[in-house]
Amino acid sequence: MAPPDSRIDSLDFDANATVRSARSHRSLLDDDVDLMDELAQSIIERDRRRMQREVLRSVSFICALLNCLCAGSIATFSLYGGALLTDLHYTQFRVNAVSVTAELAMYLPVPLFGYLCDRFSPRPLSLLSSLLFGAGYLLAAFVYKSGPPRDAGGHGWPFGVMVLAFVGIGAATSCMYLVAVAACAKNYAQSRYRGFMLAVPIAAFGISGLWQSQVGAQLLSKQQPNAATVTATGDVDVFKYFLFLAGTLAAAGIIGSIGLHIVDEEALIDRGIEDLERSGLLAESDFFQPRSRRTSYGTTSMWLLAAGFFLVTGPGEAYINNLGTIILSLTPTTWSDTGHPPAGRASTHVSLIALTSTIARLGTGSLSDIFAPPIQLLAFLFLAIPFFTPAHPRLFLLSSSLLGLGYGACFSLVPIIVSVVWGPENFATNWGIVAMMPAGGAAIWSIVYSVGYSRGSGPGNECFGSDCFSAWAWGCAASVAVAIALLACAWRTWTRGHVAV
To answer: Domains in the chain, please, with CATH?
Structure first.
């Protein structure tokens, strides 16, 4: 009998047996691969978006610095204030009317600009500042070139046209400065060094007066045919200087209208909503209420801050605006030296104020981040010393240096306080309300200065000697002393409310 066939035929297998499918095995691997790819892609996308946000934040910061580096051109008013007095035959009242108009136009619209910046975006306002700066300085340039007005014995454009030009310049100054600071305040609201990141653009605003005054004095100065005719006003060619400012500031505003962005604004809004919700749940505990409820606008601390800011900035603004005529009053009538005037040139004083102001602004921001000693920072507000009548004209440089330190610290400290106490969500609106205060102070103390200067003026609307400004100086010193007391009271209110200023 033949042995059975040991070969296995394929038909011997059970057709119903379960066999692992190679296809299904590949599908599971594919799912794992797809999951890993999706995870990797999500990480890459997250990093890409984070990088994009940081790039936008950095670009916005650079544009904000550029805006602030150009926006402070009004600080150089003293360079050409004397020229308005001598070349256009304006009286001291008219010169101060131009400067005060610019101050009012610079501060009064700030709440409106702040509201628009918070509700929309900084970019449209940066474009608006570009248009206002360009039109304002172009108009001022041609008013100056036309010569004295008819009521002053000339055939130039009316005085009101110059006032109108500086209305645009003043409004553009606050607009460009506000959008830059607001962008930094919101973009770095959660940064550890947010005070410093705010102080940098604020300091850049002070530097703008320094470099612009030097450009005017060194590159755009008049060519005097006779050395004996050199005056103490800085010898700036006012027409060329106005044209330079018109082009430079218009370009800076256009760049800001492209590059200024608010990054993660939705997160700021969400945090504000959470604060409101938390205030409803924890209404009975004053300590756990959000700072916006503990220290809201309209409270005593707000009025103390606003009043102190009013009393301390008004004298500073008046000092800077009338610097050129103070130098003229300290220059002897017999002086004909080809060198520097005894009290220094206006461009030197403007640069010195800008430099010391910048140092104070940077120092104030750094200290607020690290130590937060508000009472020590408020000590920078001692602007009284510069207003004591200088016994010798050469000491006037020291006076300007001290004023620059106090003035810069004040304008750096107050925005930081507003950001810390009332939060960054509506920073532009809140700061805009407080920023209105210097307008009234500048107007009052400029009028006081004009009265004293006019009483001591002789032929040609020029005044010589300390009597031109001594009463004004003592009044400014008293104003600043009261401001220091009010700001100290405000600081005590914040510390009692557990606000880490």
So the answer is: 59-268+287-496 (1.20.1250.20)
